[in-house]
Specification:
This protein starts with 29 loop residues before the first helix and ends with a helix. By secondary structure, it is mostly helical. The protein has 2 domains: 81 residues, Orthogonal Bundle (Arc Repressor Mutant, subunit A); 138 residues, Tetracycline Repressor, domain 2. The model has no long low-confidence stretch (mean pLDDT 85). It is flat.
Length: 229
């Protein structure tokens, strides 16, 4: 592990801005750095992101980046919050269940479009975009009549479901290797006597797209969280 990869145990969102060194005169901005980091992550994944590689993309020195971002860990937190800013707010006239449904579908779509991102939701994310959408989710659940532990459980169920589904869907799309998919199908099909249900249920060759499966699953989850009147 290099110095730039070493975790600090402290979130960028909780660090006092005064701890940052004074900025030099530079054409760089934090916004440009984060946008370039997202592009680098989309192209190559988190494992290959380094401050040196990012500096090359921006045509600056690695030292210039550290005037704006203290660690690679901070950069990943900033990039994750940045892409969640792509999740649009649902239409203001929707009733709570429809509003939550729209929010979760768009949240899932954004994470799948940035397949490196679901893995970083295991970190304490306190950026403005993540908090704004979580606030929106809880406000709509509250409008639907949930409070206390029911509100907490519903929030956890829905958020964790979206993250888990996005992680699974993004993994296969990132892989994008038909040969590996064919081997996975054959592995199960050749053991049909061990996995008879998986062999016939659509687990191997699902007749539905990932997006359709996710959409239907969200509907089922919301029926549980907010029972029909």
């Amino acid at each position: 592990m290099t110095t730039e990869d070493a975790p600090t145990g402290e979130s960028v969102w909780l660090r006092d801005a005064g701890e940052r060194p004074p900025r030099r005169a530079t054409p760089l901005t934090l916004e440009r750095i984060v946008a370039a980091a997202v592009s680098e992550l989309d192209a190559h994944g988190a494992e290959k992101l380094t401050m040196r590689r990012l500096a090359q993309r921006l045509d600056v020195s690695s030292t210039a980046l550290y005037w704006h971002v203290k660690t690679k860990e901070d950069l990943l937190d900033l990039a994750t919050d940045h892409i969640i800013g792509e999740v649009p707010p649902p239409a203001p006239d929707l009733e709570p269940r429809a509003a939550i449904y729209a929010l979760l579908l768009d949240w899932h779509a954004v994470m799948v479009a940035h397949p490196w991102s679901p893995g970083f939701f295991s970190r304490p994310l306190l950026g403005p975009n993540v908090l704004a959408r979580t606030e929106y989710l809880q406000a709509e659940l509250t409008s639907a009549g949930l409070s206390g532990i029911d509100l907490a459980c519903a929030t956890r169920l829905l958020v964790n479901f979206v993250i888990g589904a996005a992680m699974a869907d993004a993994t296969w799309r990132w892989l994008d290797n038909p040969a590996v998919l064919d081997k996975a199908r054959a592995h199960i099909a050749d053991r049909a006597h061990l996995y008879p249900t998986l062999t016939t249920s659509g687990f191997i060759e699902a007749p539905w797209s990932d997006d359709e499966l996710f959409s239907r699953a969200v509907e089922r989850a919301l029926e549980t969280v907010i029972p029909p009147a």
